[in-house]
Amino acid sequence: MGTPNVTLDQEINPWEAQSARFEFAARKLNLDEGLWKVLRSPSREIIVHFPVTMDDGRIEMFTGFRVQHSMVRGPAKGGIRYSPDVTLDEMRALAGWMTWKCAVVNIPFGGAKGGVICDPKQMSQGELERMTRRYTSEIIDFIGPEKDVPAPDVNTNEQTMAWIMDTYSMHMRQTVTSVVTGKPLNIGGSRGRQEATGRGVRVACDESLRYLSMPIEGCRVIIQGFGNVGSNAARLMMELGYKIVGISEQDGGLFNPNGIDIHQLVEFKYRNGSILGFRGAEAMPSEELLVSECEILIPAATENVITSRNADRIKARIVVEGANGPTTAVADDILAEKRIFVVPDILANAGGVTASYFEWVQDRQGYFWKEAVIIEQLEAILRESFDDVVRYAEAHNVNNRIAAYMLAIDRVAITIKQRGIYA
Ligand code: NAD
């Protein structure tokens, strides 16, 4: 599926990554040419240039984007990131990605992504707040509970969502909590949201083992990234009996063939700000851990870590993609040749957006569910989606990633056909 002879720069370009999978899956589906054209491009791209008064009184101009790929299945859904590297092309790719992710888990959302070009590490809280509020007011006509519902992403968090919610509410002259998800619990956030992506990763691992008739007992797991997704997945999996033998972070990794005590490691990282120096495991370079012996490898850190450079050395039987885009399209082919069972990102990390959907539903109901209800509903949706994807893969004789894309594209295409093209 990956185009051979591409440079590494092309291989890791998010637009290339998204479109390589889309084009391949659309062809396999025999997608109608007209629908192909509709789905290939985003429906709306908003670019705003706006001023912010900095702490020293200077006025700075910022550029922000919001790209809405599709809204046919419901309001658009997707994160907002703050970074110097934000580009319109990246927003386009990630917005499409969100459409497919929401469709795979069959929740009534389309896909969007937004961002502001800025360096949040160089900005004060006051500057970030003013920038967030002005950006919100610039895109206010295009967001809303029934239009487009942003969420946190790279360098944005609960506080950013609270500012967006407040700004939107001020303009609407009423409190509208359901305009964003990922809010603090106190102002319409949902129980279970923090660990939802890690929980979904665990469900994907459970289901993979069940599908391949492999036991949890003795199942060795290596996880790249010990942030929100990686640490929650590790903890929930250890509690179920998985043996977490390796954990890697940006500054180094840990290995223990008998299993790492994740509760202790979480506490150690909390106290020390790093996993390095933890006594319950040996130090091991991160790159080495990625290609070490294990049953399940979970890349849960960042994109483009499994590429043409290392895919042939991966020894895991199963790869469960906690991160977004950890595997390039070229590496997909190499993993497929090695018959590695891959649970693709748009399925494996969809626990987060599913819990966001629950947050939006609860905000609109004004009634908040108990954590046990959220866990039960989340796990049920993810199990069913896993089943849908592997059955689709079997029926069409394709790998899980292509099956997930085909299923998603098919669901969106059917909706467009049913609604018809307005002209
Ligand atoms: P995070 O910032 O909490 O954690 C990321 C961790 O990865 C950090 O601890 C960092 O040190 C580590 N890391 C970074 N580069 C690394 C490298 N090269 N090798 C090893 N470790 C490295 O982020 P997160 O929320 O856990 O998100 C992780 C990934 O999951 C991202 O790709 C994100 O887009 C994706 N994701 C997150 C959610 C969510 O709900 N948080 C939902 C869907 C997808």
Main features:
single chain, 423 residues, alpha/beta, 7-stranded mixed sheet, 5-stranded mixed sheet, 15 helices, 12 strands, globular, binds nicotinamide-adenine-dinucleotide
Description:
By secondary structure, this protein is of the alpha/beta class. Helix content is 46%, strand content 17%. It is built from 15 helices and twelve strands. The strands form two sheets. It has a seven-stranded mixed sheet. The chain has a five-stranded mixed sheet with strand order 1-2-4-3-5. β6 (220-224), α8 and β7 form a beta-alpha-beta unit. It starts with 7 loop residues before the first helix and ends with a helix. The model has no long low-confidence stretch (mean pLDDT 96). Bound molecules: nicotinamide-adenine-dinucleotide. Nicotinamide-adenine-dinucleotide is lined by residues 197, 224-230, 248-250, 286, 300-302, 322-324, 349, 352.
